[in-house]
Design goal:
alpha+beta, DUF403, CP_ATPgrasp_2, 7-stranded antiparallel β-sheet, Circularly permuted type 2 ATP-grasp protein, 4-stranded parallel β-sheet, 28 helices
């Protein structure tokens, strides 16, 4: 159906050139035959609530639209919005469509009302199934439909959730059917994903079209999350609860979203190894000992939560977790076993259950569903096999579906058809038949013009003391295929922001900060999980290690370009730089047969060598990704940029000046990162561990530089190279008129307390950090890391540079490495069993 926008109507509605632009913009937009479209109404004209958006796009023109969308693309990369396909190790940029889905406020009220009703119904079903079980006992719900689900967690029978709710965060997938009404396609109660991406979609598009967002009076999302957070806090037994977001870890497909939600909501992002149970309570392992966890918003499936009572092979859960839940010591969002209501088998019973439990009809009906565990329904599916979609009753797929989520009977070949029918006849309870739903379409931008694509919409509901709150928007998934059948939507889909437009100015809720005049002032830095401290510490070490490698590369290239390098003495710094790069694993010894520039380039940018700056930058980024919720977006962008600076084809073998330029760009990025950490990172335990890692690594590397360039018959050239590596040439020349001499060089590199590159300076900072970190036992005694740090600091402060030789430097280096191990053993013991409270710490 072509868009009917004749010239007269266009002129009447929008006179002149503007109407012509608008008509040209949508002239070729053709909805799919017989399928409702969000942009074009049944009369063939654009719907009124799309007019402001279309006017804006038409006014921008093709080039203006491309520029805005390109800016949105850059924003996705800068924000690091990513996802991971199951089974892949690399992250992909988030596929955000350029146009939002628009919904009017009146239509939204009906949707929100239906979702709130459905959330309440599902919560009551869960309360009954895990409680009195009257629905099963009275025949309203077949026992097999419950017990046959792998998401029925028997260990939760009889458990009363803290706060009384089984569901606290619920999502539902809906689509508009051929009749123009919204239908429920599926429920999400196990660990619903997408809410974080909904916020990021909103941030990206609202910044691409800020005036449009305001003019259309789009409802904000922050109020929903504020209410959700308040609801979780109200469920806890303590007035100032510790709320954790439990993640499967960095390899989760939606880890970037989980990180964003933790940072946005101010929750503690934890993995299973961050948690421990003691005395029937759940605790977080922190650098200050075990601290009580009051609320857990889980993104780990229930079967993986407790290896003692569920999946024994789980590395994601916590031994004793179920026991802590049964004891009522931790509030959950959502309770283990809540995933039961996701089963397609249950959908066929919801209309009657709504009448039974709520006394109401479903305001948002299901897709028509028949559970094949009942003889009559199974016979009905067999009679209409060709016109039904067959799907698994309890999971993504089932036997006979060939790994697909669903199959349409008419599209199966004879062998597939016979196999699936045999499977249903053998074990019908594992299958449902559903009506084949034709989804409506929404416009997407294909790079040149608007085109219709089918979509489904995920909307989120949060339980609060005032009842269910519905996010005014959601997470829209748009198919990349024109086929509008719901079952055809799979990989390759895009996301889209969802704008609920109104007639009045939207609530100005763009922040989660409480507006309470009597709110208490708190300066307590919080408790840092041991795993987070570990990764922050190694992030600091890796960044310093990458910088040290790049400094050697630059020093090598500088010497290669100097004419004095031809002389025998002049070659000593070159040989020692190369020797150090080989020892550090930044290049292979066989590379000695290649020109020095090749060795330098390999050490800087070849990720195949574990000690190259490029490989180490990747390690720093991986460590940072695990604690990303604690890093600012600017820091993450610089980490991404550092990798980009070092990406270079080794085979190109550019000349030394180009390698130096590449190296210095990377060093500038590292300097910017260091500046951000020093000036923008709050002085809490997290910053202390980043700086500790940096100081420990710098001290060790400086010792190695000194042993390499100031030992074994040093020359003026090797001492000058040492001063360059510790960035102290200007300081040395300002103090000494003569050329580089051994004792003054060693003093400035090893012992000078005023030189921010010296070993003595690092040990002083290390001691200061350790003195401020929390102690496990408040007995006034130094803990082992601090005792060792004080000893090293005192020895360096009392040392005389004229007595420092290679053996003495090696001794200091080994003591520093022992200090690093002591820090690890004391603060990063997140994988060990928790010690009793009276021996380790107070359980707060």
């Amino acid at each position: 159906m072509a868009v009917e926008l004749d010239a007269d109507a266009a002129v009447d509605a929008r006179p002149g050139e503007e109407a012509q632009r608008l008509a040209a913009w949508i002239a070729d937009y053709r909805p799919l035959p017989g399928v409702p479209d969000e942009l074009i109404g049944p009369d063939g004209r654009p719907r009124a609530h799309w007019s402001t958006l279309l006017d804006t796009l038409a006014g921008l023109g093709q080039s203006g639209v491309r520029n805005r969308f390109a800016a949105a693309e850059r924003r996705i990369k800068d924000m690091g919005v990513t996802y991971r396909v199951h089974g892949e190790t690399r992250e992909r940029p988030w596929p955000l469509g350029r146009l939002p889905l628009l919904l009017t406020e009146s239509e939204w009220r009906d949707i929100a009302s239906g979702i709130a009703q459905r959330a309440e119904l599902l919560d009551r079903i869960l309360q009954d199934v895990y409680g009195e079980a009257r629905l099963v006992a009275e025949g309203a719900l077949p026992a097999a439909a419950v017990a046959g689900s792998p998401e029925f967690i028997r260990q939760m029978r009889g458990v009363k959730p803290v706060g009384g709710r089984w569901l606290r965060f619920y999502a539902v997938d809906i689509g508009r059917g051929p009749d123009g009404k919204w239908w429920v396609l599926g429920d999400r109660a196990q660990a619903p994903s997408g809410a974080g991406y909904a916020i990021e979609n909103r941030l990206i598009l609202s910044r691409a079209f800020p005036s449009l967002f305001r003019d259309m009076k789009v409802q904000r999302l922050a109020g929903f999350f504020r209410d959700f957070r308040a609801g979780l806090a109200a469920a806890a037994s303590r007035s100032d609860p510790r709320i954790c977001l439990m993640t499967p870890g960095p390899w989760s497909e939606t880890y970037a979203e989980q990180v964003y939600l933790a940072r946005y909501l101010g929750f503690l992002l934890v993995e299973g190894e961050d948690l421990a149970t003691s005395e029937g309570k759940l605790h977080v392992r922190t650098v200050a000992g075990l601290k009580r966890a009051d609320v857990v918003w889980r993104r780990v499936d229930a079967d993986w939560l407790d290896p003692l009572e569920a999946n024994a092979a789980s590395k994601l859960g916590v031994p004793g977790f179920f026991d802590a839940i049964r004891n009522g010591s931790v509030a959950m969002a959502n309770m283990p076993g809540a995933g039961l209501v996701e089963s397609r088998a249950l959908m066929s019973f919801l209309p009657t259950l709504a009448q039974r439990l709520l006394g109401e009809n479903l305001r948002l009906p299901n897709v028509a569903t028949w559970w094949c565990g009942q003889a009559a329904e199974r016979d009905e599916i067999m009679r209409a096999f060709d016109s039904r979609a067959i799907a698994g009753a309890y999971g993504e797929t089932a036997e006979g579906l060939g790994g697909a989520r669903a199959a349409i009977g008419a599209e199966l070949d004879p062998f597939q058809r016979a196999r699936l029918i045999r499977a249903i006849e053998t074990r019908g309870m594992d299958y449902v038949g559903q009506e084949i739903v034709q989804l409506s379409t929404t416009p997407v931008w294909d790079g040149e013009a608007l085109t219709p694509r089918p979509f489904s919409l995920r909307i989120f509901a949060a339980a609060t003391p005032e009842g269910w709150k519905i996010m005014p928007g959601g997470f829209c998934r748009v198919s990349d295929q024109r086929d509008a059948r719901a079952v055809s939507m799979g990989s390759g889909a895009q996301s889209a922001d969802v704008w609920v437009t109104g007639d009045e100015e939207a609530e100005n809720a763009t922040t989660l900060l409480p507006l309470k005049p009597d709110a208490p002032v708190v300066r307590v830095p919080g408790n840092l999980p041991s795993r987070a401290a570990d990764n922050l510490f190694w992030m600091g070490r890796y960044l310093e290690r990458a910088e040290a490698t790049l400094r050697i590369v630059r020093c090598l290239c500088n010497r290669l370009t100097e004419t004095q390098s031809i002389a025998t003495q002049g070659r000593q710094p070159i040989e020692r730089c190369e020797r150090l790069l080989f020892a550090w694993g930044a290049a292979a010894p066989f590379a000695a047969a290649h020109p020095g520039a090749f060795i330098a380039l390999t050490a800087a940018s070849d990720a195949d060598f574990y000690g190259s700056a490029r490989a180490i930058a990747g390690q720093a980024k991986r460590a940072a990704s695990i604690v990303r919720e604690r890093l600012s977006p600017d820091m993450w962008q610089l980490l991404v940029r550092l990798e980009m600076r070092l990406d270079h084809l080794v085979a190109d073998a550019p000349p030394e000046p180009e390698i130096v330029e590449m190296t210095e760009r990377a060093l500038h990025t590292l300097a910017a990162l260091s500046g951000l950490m020093d000036e923008n990172f709050n002085r809490v335990s997290g910053w202390a561990f980043i700086d500790l890692g940096k100081r420990v690594e710098r001290a060790i590397n400086t010792c190695r530089f000194a042993r390499q360039f100031a030992d074994d018959d040093p020359t003026i050239e090797t001492l000058d190279a040492l001063l360059e590596l510790v960035d102290s040439q200007i300081s040395y020349r300002s103090r000494y008129l003569a050329g580089a001499a051994l004792a003054p060089t060693l003093d400035i590199a090893m012992l000078d307390p005023f030189n921010p590159r010296s070993v003595a300076f690092q040990t002083r900072r290390i001691d200061e950090h350790l003195s401020m970190l929390p102690a496990l036992v408040d007995d006034g005694m130094m803990e082992p890391p601090r005792r060792l740090a004080v000893s090293i600091r005192a020895e360096l402060e009392a040392e005389d540079a004229r007595r420092v030789d290679g053996a003495r430097i090696l001794f200091v280096e080994q003591r520093l490495m022992a200090l690093a191990n002591a820090i690890s053993e004391r603060y990063f013991s997140h994988a060990s069993d928790p010690a009793p409270a009276d021996k380790r710490s107070k359980l707060a």
